[in-house]
Structure prediction request, 191 residues.
Amino acid sequence: MALIWAWLAIGAAGCWLWPGQRLVALHLVSCIGYGDPMKKGDLAPDFDLPGDDGSIISLSQELEHGPVVLFFYPRAMTTGCTKESCHFRDLGKEFSELGARRIGISADPIDRQARFKAKHNFDYPLLSDTDRKVASLYGVKRPGPIFNKRTTFVIGTNRRVLAVIGSELNMDRHADEALEILRSTRSKEVS
Prediction:
């Protein structure tokens, strides 16, 4: 029943909810999901998904080159997802200096991912999880047609989750906190 109320509240938000109430309804929907998200210390599930260029990308192969920052975003070419993805692009040098690979993932089909990447000149792959099975494995899938949760996982080369970063409203937080975690991890390895 709560899911139906939340769905109706979001759908009618522009019609009968005040601006502050929209955020409450959005928060309610953001809390509804299938299972718990991965937690720090969990073993990240391996996967094989098509990238924006049609090639198959697997987490285990990417981890052979260094840690992975896997960020789930709700939908390509929307305002928030564009801001978040562009921030990951703009911090590319910092991620590279730490040997980390960035990977974006959403339920968008390959052609939409390719247009999104080309339009904003992203220098990292965007993966297509159209059936949302990988999102479900990571605990970020929402029920029905509601888009996935905006969540970032920092994953070490041993496939252990180093951090889980979630925010539906602060688009810069994902890349910024991922960099902090990677820097902290690197400094601990050096000492």
Remarks:
- Residues 76 and 116 are 6 Å apart (CA to CA).
- Residues 173-190 form the longest helix (18 residues).
